[in-house]
Amino acid sequence: MIIVLKPGTTRSEVKEFSSWIESINNVKVNAWYGEHSIVLGLLGDSAAVDIESISAQRIVESVKRVQEPYKKANRKFHPADTVIDLGGGSILGGGKLALIAGPCSVESEEQIIDVAKHVKSSGAAFLRGGAFKPRTSPYAFQGLRASGLELLRHAREKTGLPIVTEIMSPGHIVLFEDVDIIQVGARNMQNFELLKELGKVNKPILLKRGLANTIEELLMSAEYIMAAGNEQVILCERGIRTFETMTRNTLDISAVPLLKSLTHLPVVVDPSHAVGVSTLVEPLAFAAVAAGADGLIIEVHNDPPHAMSDGAQSLTPQQFKSLASRIVEIAPVFGKEVSHRADE
Ligand code: PEP
Ligand code: MN
């Protein structure tokens, strides 16, 4: 971090200010005296330095971070890829690309088991399905809630697929004890109390990018979970809000290689929520693989026209099968191997 001080700042003020910064942070402050300005350089762990309180000091002209404010998620300090391995071949990251597939919402036992069997036979390594649903309207289907989690467990018993499902409240963590990967949805990416609580959980967290959040904000949200003790975080690009109205969101494909360079955490792409139109899911999935994604989340429904949520973007099991087989073919071109369940 670089701090430029106002002209006229005295040496004793610089000394006092530097000692104050050093006393509350784990940094060493060096000062350079120029003809017209004084510049301070902070060396060490400046992630926790409060830039706003520094800027508020009378003698400070400007402050600039030269190092990223996220530390645990930063590839600079952890060059090797984080790999999420749930056993049985369900692996994400480190050269393995995982397909996470299933309906938007868990609707019934028959539906979730039917979809789970289909996506497994097509090569999915994880089953997704929402039990607690974040809906724009309070009158829309809110999910089967705890009984939806129960049905996901049945589907896991039948297929062996680890389950991925969304949490919306810290108070629900006890209900998620038997979930394999907990998803934090776009709308909760900055629910910091939820993130802190998930930092105490010993299971992977799939963190989706918020509708209007920057890449740095996504990394800072991951940092919240990691700083609280849980380093198993998977990031998900799922499209952001733009002025375009023909698609549900706009897939920020550049986020994928950017995130891969900035962080060691696995990056997955959800083309279903990004585009909102089933016919456009496959080309976006290919683009995501080409951009370096470690996984894809694809919504699959046994009867999309009658789905209780997100039918328009859901693939049929047959469409998913065709997509999955093409992903298996193209992944090696981009240095990835699609992870397979050992019990297939
Ligand atoms: C979902 O995965 O069903 C979902 C609600 O996604 P998002 O949070 O990305 O909108
Ligand atoms: Mn959905």
Cα-based radius of gyration, to the nearest Å? 23 Å
Task: Report strand %.
Answer: 15-25%
Average pLDDT figure: 97
Bound molecules: phosphoenolpyruvate, manganese (II) ion
What does the overall shape look like? elongated
Looking at the structure, the CATH topology of the largest domain is TIM Barrel
Oligomer: single chain
Taking strands numbered 1, 2, ... along the chain, how are they ordered across the largest sheet? 7-8-9-10-11-12-13-14
Find the structural class using helix and strand composition: alpha/beta
Name the CATH superfamily classification of the largest domain.
Answer: Aldolase class I
What is the number of E strands? Answer: 15
Largest sheet: 8 strands, parallel, barrel
Q: What portion of residues is helical?
A: 25-40%
How many structural domains in the coordinates? Answer: 2
Number of helices: 10
State the order of secondary-structure elements, H for helix, E for strand: EHEEHEEEEHEHEEHEHEHEHHEHE
**Low-confidence segments, ≥5 residues, pLDDT <50?**
none
CATH architecture of the largest domain: Alpha-Beta Barrel
Concise structural overview:
The chain has 344 residues and is of the alpha/beta class. It has helices spanning 11-24, 51-55, 109-121, 146-159, 192-198, 215-227, 255-262, 271-275, 281-291, 317-330, and strands at 2-5, 27-33, 38-44, 60-64, 84-85, 91-92, 96-102, 126-128, 163-167, 181-184, 205-208, 233-237, 267-269, 295-299, 337-338.
